[in-house]
Amino acid sequence: MPAEAFGHLVPQLSPYRNWLSERGFSFEFSYKGEAMANVGGGISKGMSYAHELTFNTRWDLGRLLGLDGWILHAVMMERAGRQISYDHVGEHRILLSEVYSLSGHAAAHLADIYVEKSFFNNRVNINIGRITLTHTYATSVLLCTFMVQCSAPPAIKADEGWSVYPKATWGGTLRIKPTRDLTLRTGVYKVGPLTENPSGWAWGSETSTGVMLPVELTWEPFIGKDNLPGHYKLGFGHDTSPYADRLGTIPAMFAHDVFHDANKPRDTFYIEADQMVYRKGGQHQMAGGYILAGYVHNTPSVSTFSDQVYVGASLLGIIPRRPFDRFGVMYSYYQMSPAITLGQRLRQLAGMSMGAFVNGPQTHSAILEAYYGIPIHPGLVVQPEFEYMMRPGETSIIPNATLIGLKVLGNL
Predict the structure, then answer these.
(1) How far apart are CA 362 and CA 125, in angstroms?
(2) Which PANTHER family does the UniProt record give (predicted)?
(3) To the nearest 5 percent, what fractions of the chain are helix, strand and coil?
(4) Does the model's pTM come out above 0.70?
């Protein structure tokens, strides 16, 4: 997912880009850096920095090999840094900065690599290869302007099944677009541990626990005389992997009162929506105000989060003579699995450890996030960030944390 930096830092490369594109190869090289500081609450004051360098390529196999209509996509990246959630906030369920995630430090991590082909005037499209599910399902451009929600809501990407960028998995998606406003996506993907194969290259060592069967219906209307665009998504995913319930170890004194469920698959249901509510006009056709909201529900007994609700707003070009500035604000609420909470309470009563980094029975948390993106040069965006996390660690033990930071996006 290339950084949205509105242009390129080195426009002198455009003739060479065009020459390569005419012969079947195009690329984006981007930098994303995030420096976040905890200035109040949490477990300590301090700052953490992380960055990624992404090389996103597109190969037109029709021009290169005569395979008309086939496109090869490949994404490779370098990531390094630390996670503010772990270092200073005391939060180990939700990442408060986007860049540092599953791959950790990776000099050359291979993310997506897949082929694509469209049929019947783009009404049918297929993608086959190693693909990140949350680049296809349960995501949007607006969601990915927020650090916590990119590339999908944390309740979706917290567990196995939904492979989250940059963790790709084998599989494919079929997209059908019967009308201008409706799109149906469905596919089959391999499921394995999210932390396995951190480099993205060791395909042979990956284990498989089952398959993910996602389906998503999207309605994209244009409303009113100003043709205000909206995106309304209804999605479901069935992970066939057998998961143990999240109770954990039950103390002997409660063994006769609490029973573990049999291993079961995990289901995820989600609704996501965004809608432009007014159009500003001017230099940018998408300038205006948007509202967005969503709800996620997972099978409670075998998931980290049983539910998530979020609501937010995004405003593009609201300041005169600043058509590409973007402001966003979002509130999100996270409900822990009741099985996790119950198991921790029982271990606490028995004087046992409740688990690593757990200082009390975990129930829920919430995050308020706001940003203001400023394009200061074609190909370069500076984005101040603010986050306020309520109940870090999903308990009331750690004080609410206040974070400020800066994200920098650049396109070569």
Answers:
(1) 43
(2) PORIN B
(3) 15, 50, 40
(4) yes
The rounded distance, in Å, linking the Cα atoms of 145 and 243 is 33
Helices (H) and strands (E) in the chain, counts: 5, 17
Half-sphere exposure of 158 (CA within 13 A, CB side): 27
Beta-bridge partners for 312: 292, 330
Alpha carbon 188 to its chain centroid, in Å, reads 19
Residues 158-208: tens digit of each pLDDT? 998 998 888 899 999 999 999 999 999 999 999 988 888 888 898 888 899
Distance CA 174, CA 189 (A): 12
**Closest C-alpha among 192, 99, 189 to residue 137:** 189
Q: Which helix (H) or strand (E) holds 309?
A: strand 305-316
* H helices present in 213-361, as ranges: 338-349
Rounded-to-integer distance, Cα 374 and Cα 210, Å: 44
Q: Assess contact for 251 and 350: CB atoms under 8 A.
A: yes
SS3 107: strand
What span, in angstroms and rounded, lies between the C-alpha atoms of 301 and 326?
A: 39
Residue 135 per-residue DSSP state: G
Report the alpha-carbon distance of residue 272 to residue 140 in Å, rounded: 9
196 near 206, Cβ under 8 Å? yes
Amino acid at 105: H
CB neighbours of residue 195 within 10 Å:
11
Q: What is the pLDDT of residues 335-372, one digit of tens each?
A: 999 999 999 999 999 999 999 999 999 999 999 999 99
How far, in Å, CA of 37 to CA of 97, rounded?
A: 10
Instruction: Name the burial class of residue 327, with classes exposed (0-12), middle (13-18) and buried (19+) by CB atoms within 10 angstroms of its CB.
Output: middle
